[in-house]
Amino acid sequence: MPEAFFYQLNGDSPEAVLPRMLDMALGKGWRIEVRGLARDRMERLDLALWGEGGEFRPHGIAGGPHDSEQPILLTVAQGQGDRDCLMALDGAPVSEGEALVAQRVCIVFDGSDPEALSTARTQWKVLTGAGLAARYYMREDGTWSLRQERQARS
Prior knowledge:
The protein is of the alpha/beta class and 154 residues long. The protein is 30% helix and 29% strand. Strand 5, helix 3 and strand 6 (104-110) form a beta-alpha-beta unit.
């Protein structure tokens, strides 16, 4: 059954936390789409995924000749193919249909931005309304804490 995980950032950037999240998803053997609203965000993530000390995470920015082969695809467009995990940043849209065919949807947002918080709340209602199990995590002092959980429903 698909799951939706919500990650509220408080002071950290997505570029700082996504590499570890992506490592965990890759460890499950998942193919991942990271979706944002702005190409410059995807370009910053592209640089961050090269990692410090040469720690490379296999990825590409959508629009290349090998998009379908990328373990991690960075994009600003919906519908980039069959992915096990969809990570949405900055309020990027996630349709109910996409969520129901993925193993996991991750919504990553800035908790200090009222608009981002409102968008995440709406996404929570849509995804849990579609029957997905959901977990809400908040990042404080460099660690994640589970703040809310909802079971899947049929």
